[in-house]
Amino acid sequence: MLEQLREVAGMGGPAAALANELLVLRQQYESGELTLEEFQFLAQQVAEVKAAQDLSNDEQALRYIVSAASAISKVV
Question: What is the CA angle 44-7-1, rounded to 5?
Fold first, then answer.
């Protein structure tokens, strides 16, 4: 899932920006800047709030970001 997020992050557009944000959150968690609870909360916010706002016209991208956020939260 992380590799797929990296690919999407390189494509540009709103979905790429959100994918990049998820990757940054993951890096911050892995480096100890965020606790597990903080990481999971912020990843969920990206999926539920930001994705819904930024991707309201692209249901496929919205579903992908929500799925990716859920998957990377469970990998830890």
Answer: 50
- Report the C-alpha gap between 19 and 17 in whole angstroms: 5
Runs of H (alpha helix) within the chain: 2-9, 14-30, 36-45, 51-54, 59-75
3-state secondary structure of 41: helix
49-60: b (≥16 Cβ within 10 Å) or e: ebbeebbeeeee
Q: How confident is the model at residue 38 (pLDDT cuts 50, 70, 90)?
A: very high
Confidence grade of residue 33 (pLDDT, cut at 50, 70, 90)? very high
Q: What is the pLDDT of residue 2?
A: 59
Cβ atoms of residues 62 and 52 within 8 Å: yes
pTM score of the predicted model = 0.76
